[in-house]
C-alpha cells in the first residue's frame, strides 16, 4: 500500500510504502480495541482510594452500655458501621487495578488502531515534524493548512524540541515519540499524523510478524 507524504506547508513530498499487515486490515475488531483500551486505562488508575476500617477509627472502643436490661440491641463499640462516625463496611482499599493482557493481543490492537485510521481517511504521513523556531502561531497556521484541529503526532525516535514547545499550547494536539505510540491516544484523537521515520519504526516493529 502506498501513502502520500506531505510537508508542514501542505506541499507534496513523495510517497511511502506501508505493510498491509500493519496498516491494511479490512475488518476492524472493536472488541480487540476495547480490550486494549481497558487494559491501558486500568494500568493508569492510582488505586489510592481508602476508607477507615474499625481498627483504624479513633472513636472509643468502650462498650456503649451494659449487655442486658436496656431493652435495646446488643452493641460493643461505636466504631461499628451502623453508627454515625463509625467505620465503613467493605469499603475500598489501596490496590492495583492493573490486569494482564497477552502481548499478541496488545500488538494486534495497535495494528487494528492504525488500520482504522487508514480506513477512515484520518491518517497523514508527514515528511518530518521539525520547525526552526518555537512559534505557536506559525505552527498553528501550518496545522490550519493541513486541516488539523484534533490530532496525535508521532514524530519518530525523538520529538523535536522546537516542535514540542510550539505545539504544547495548542488544544487537542498531542505529540509523542514512536516509543509512546498506543491505542488509547490513537483512538482519542481524530487524526493520526506519522512522520516518515515513525512509519519506518512501526514497520520494523512488526517486521517479524510478516
UniProtKB/TrEMBL annotation:
GO terms for molecular function: rRNA binding; structural constituent of ribosome. Keywords: Ribonucleoprotein, Ribosomal protein, RNA-binding, rRNA-binding. Residues 48-81 are annotated as: Disordered. It comes from the Bacteria. InterPro entries: Ribosomal_uL4 (IPR002136), Ribosomal_uL4-like (IPR013005), Ribosomal_uL4_dom_sf (IPR023574). One of its GO terms (cellular component) is ribonucleoprotein complex. It holds the Pfam family Ribosomal_L4. GO terms for biological process: translation. Coiled coil: none annotated. The keyword RNA-binding applies. Part of the 50S ribosomal subunit. Belongs to the universal ribosomal protein uL4 family. Forms part of the polypeptide exit tunnel. This is Large ribosomal subunit protein uL4. It comes from Asticcacaulis taihuensis. The gene is rplD.
